Amino acid sequence: MKKSFGDFIELTIAYIIIFFILREWLVPVMELTNTGLLHLFLVFIGLSLALSLFEVRPLLSGIVKIGYILWFVVFAYSGNPVFSSETMPFIFSEMKWNVTAIFSGDFGEVSDTFRTVLFLALIWMLVYLIHHWITVRMNIFYFFALTVFFIATLDTFSDYDGSVAIVKVVVLGLVMTGVLFVKRLLMKSDASHDLLSKWKMLVPMVVMVVMVSLIALFLPKAGPTWADPVPFIKSVTGQGESGVGEKTAGYGEDDSQLGGPFNGDNTLVFTASSRDRHYWRIETKDLYTSKGWVQSNAKVSADSYLNNEFIQTTLQVGKPENEQQIDMDLAIPLPFLIQTYGLKSVEANEETVYFKSNQTEKILTKQYTGEDKALLSYTLTYSEPEYSMQQLRMSDPSMLETLNSSYDRFLQLPNSLPRRVQDLAIELTEGKETVYEKIKAIEGYFARSGFAYDKRAAAIPGEGQDFVDQFLFDTKIGYCDHFSTSMIVMLRSIGIPARWVKGFAPGNTGSQSDGVREYRVTNDNAHSWVEAYVPGTGWMEFEPTIGFSGTVNIDYDLELDTDLQEEPAQQEQAPKKPKAEQDTKKATSGSSLNFKAVWTWLKEHPYVWVGFILLVVIVLIILFVQRKKWIPKMHVRSYRKKEADWSTFDSSYHVLTKQLSRIGLRRKDGETLRAFAERVDAALETEEMKKLTSVYEQHIYSKQPQDVDFAKLKESWEYLINRTIG
Amino acid sequence: MNTQIQAVLENIEKVMIGKRGIAELCVVALLSKGHVLLEDVPGVGKTMMVRALAKSFDAQFKRIQFTPDLLPSDVVGVSIYNPKTMEFEFRPGPIMGDIVLADEINRTSPKTQSALLEGMEEASVTIDGNTLKIAQPFFVMATQNPIEYEGTYPLPEAQLDRFLLKIRMGYPTKEQEVEILRRAENGAPIEKIQAVLSVTQLVELQELVLGVYVEDSVKNYMVELALQTRQDSYVYLGVSPRASIALMKASQAYAFMKGRSYVTPDDVQYLVPFVFSHRLMLKPDARYDGVTAEEIIERIIAKVPVPTKRFAEQ
């Protein structure tokens, strides 16, 4: 078919659009790779497009392009005029150099000249591909979508600003897609191909695209809903770099100014080999300043211990028979111990004095001389404490009033604390009988009240603004410091002693051998949580931060009846129970409880349910969407087995009409079977439906149907069914 | 296709170009002992159609040209006194033929019209108290010119009901008209065609048509179509049960012609416009809204569900 002038004009427009889209590709690449001579590259694109537009013979077009590439290289790299005596030696020496480099496998050695040639060849290929897309497939959508993705990605992850480019690309791409769609439409329908009818369709399309783009350009736009993903991705891929004015994750001493965003840092701090999952405790703080935490100047003594000596702490220690050991292996030597709950003693290879501050609970490692000593490895002996539920249930609030004055510092609150914080705490704990229940009520408040965990979006309290108040009532977005501090302040406001604990979350689990698992703790795992005083039990850890689960081990010793025993367990502790504890529980309670354990586990992991239901729904949706594929196949299988008679034929005919209606060939009420059959045959390009229908007609309208060849009908039927699938 | 009828139709086609559908409908009416009203302007081949049909059967062809002064006796015949035998002798009128063309039926007085229509309906004429049967085949094709109204006596609806089918002839296409000229170049082609079927064979075929099976679901469908015409908001008077019968008879003949021993809804749908359209009395609203009887019927066909199961299974 000879191309008409209209086609040529159309193609020219398409190529011009493509040129501009390709330009949007090239610009950021040039910008980011510090490549100059953008205009020469653009000339090459233009040249390639023009050659393909005028359908220049491949050989000639190839020669022109190669010529341009050679000229480009000589012009850009040799610094000599092209038609000088230096040109040929330059080209040959470059060729020799690069060929040698490639054959010897030194790909890093290839020169810029060669890279430029490769890049130009790439453009050549791209133009050829686009030519194919436009003229043969008549669909440029993938290229368009890819361009948008490319520019969006560059805009997000590099310094390139694509805010103008994206508008240009979208407008050009939509116009291009529209033009090709019209072309396809006209090809499919037998509508007249004259220029006028084409323009009648094209002009409104272009006007529409331009109008929509203009409106979109001038309408007010909402800011990004997601935080900038770059810092997160960088932290995951290990390219963390601290920005100006932002904190970096990790353990630090100064907590007087909490809040504000911080960047991730996945530098390894230590590796612990342990049977259990632990919260790694370093120190506690007691004085809340309304901006952060500092140390009160209470006069509290300090104790010193030696290797393997029992270290006295304010925390509970588990039963002696549960004693376990953890091997700590530090990546960076630290002059203090990383403790676990239930710590009993420490052993290091070297002689060390463990100097424990009873004020902060921090254990410094020192030499005999008193100088700091940073240990690289040591072994912790601990016995995980078990808190008795029975005892916790007996923690009457009245017992708090009898506490001695040494607990006063854990009840300290700044005078400037807004009243509503206390009001909230009272409201949350209303009706809770025991101290433990009150604490749990506050601990669980965040998870169910629309708070969000975000390291980046956290605010810094303004002048005269309380850190906790801002988090609880204004922002509701924050990280561990926000949650833990808020919980402590609320606890203190209703008279429950609480302190702020710093350390690390359990870390990422590594390899496991013999029940001992390796926990890799990085700066990202730096964490803060809560220790509250429960009368009769002592200090206990609590975890208010969304997304974290504590390791507290509660012994549900209330009653021996298993049914009743599980009930409160789930209510109170369900989301907190670590897996390790689950396992031991299962083991001890015997096989009869296995089902219950599974059930409990499922209850605790609603996302498993959600996932399962989602999966079922997805499968059902897929089955529904694909019904026109699998239902007929099943029918074919079942009818193959059935005996060929009139009743089978009758039902199979109905199955066929139903299947046809699934693919959009539905018989209208007033349409006769024959008219329908003709329509079906026309649509499926067969003759079989008419054959089947004439037999079916005879079956239903005649007095006495004659003998028919059912085998042949079955063939027709199967053929039709398969047509509807294919 | 029934081979005998096929031969007739091919014979007619030698004369009538591009009028296969009309010829088929005429044969349908002939086979179901009905009559046809042809409505169209003069000169499109109405007479030629009937003559070709008559010639194909070797049937007696009579023609009555209706004029305002035509008397009933001119149609049915008259008794004349024969002085030789001293008796009144009956001279049969042109209606006593096998195939009768009643040209421009709306030009004559209602009295004469009703004489023809009575003969058509009863297949007998009454003269001087004597009733004479008209032998089969008896096929009347009446024509009327829808353009001229002056000096015409339009047939009342009740009398239109006597016609099984109303057909519009229509102009031929350009190519067809050229072909018509080509054939007419060397004399009239009507003179060249031969009879392909005898009158006796035709009567036999008429009997065979009665044996075509109409499944109850299809009967139900026909009645439903008739009922719908009585409920349409544009229709003043819907079709009568006589129309339902006519539809069934015509469908049987059509199915027979197509070589089938049973009627399908396709037959019915094809014939409904020809059977029903002249029997519908439309309200004046219909004329204001520009709705024709054909359009109403088309709508009804699209609306009424086609039976796709045997009546017993429904």
TrEMBL record, chain A:
Quote any Pfam family the record assigns. TgpA_N
**Domain Transglutaminase-like as annotated: residue spans:** 472-546
Keyword terms of this UniProt record: Membrane, Transmembrane, Transmembrane helix
> Does the keyword Membrane feature in the UniProt annotation?
yes
Q: Does the record bear Oxidoreductase in its keywords? A: no
Question: What InterPro entries would the database entry show?
Answer: Bact_TGase-like (IPR052901), Papain-like_cys_pep_sf (IPR038765), TgpA-like_C (IPR025403), TgpA_N (IPR021878), Transglutaminase-like (IPR002931)
Organism equals Lysinibacillus contaminans
List the top taxonomic levels of the source.
Bacteria, Bacillati, Bacillota, Bacilli, Bacillales
* Gene3D superfamilies per UniProt: 3.10.620.30
- Name this polypeptide is given: Transglutaminase
Basic and acidic residues: which segments have biased composition?
A: 574-586
TM segments?
A: 12-30, 36-54, 66-83, 113-133, 140-158, 164-182, 202-219, 607-625
The segment annotated Disordered runs over 565-587
Automatic annotation (TrEMBL), chain B:
Give start and end of each ChlI/MoxR AAA lid domain. 228-300
Q: Which residues form the ATPase AAA-3 domain?
A: 35-165
One Pfam family from the record: AAA_lid_2
Which InterPro entries does the entry link to?
ATPase_AAA-3, CbbQ/NirQ/NorQ/GpvN, ChlI/MoxR_AAA_lid, P-loop_NTPase
Q: Which Gene3D superfamilies match?
A: Magnesium chelatase subunit I, C-Terminal domain, P-loop containing nucleotide triphosphate hydrolases
Query: This protein is called what?
Result: ATPase AAA
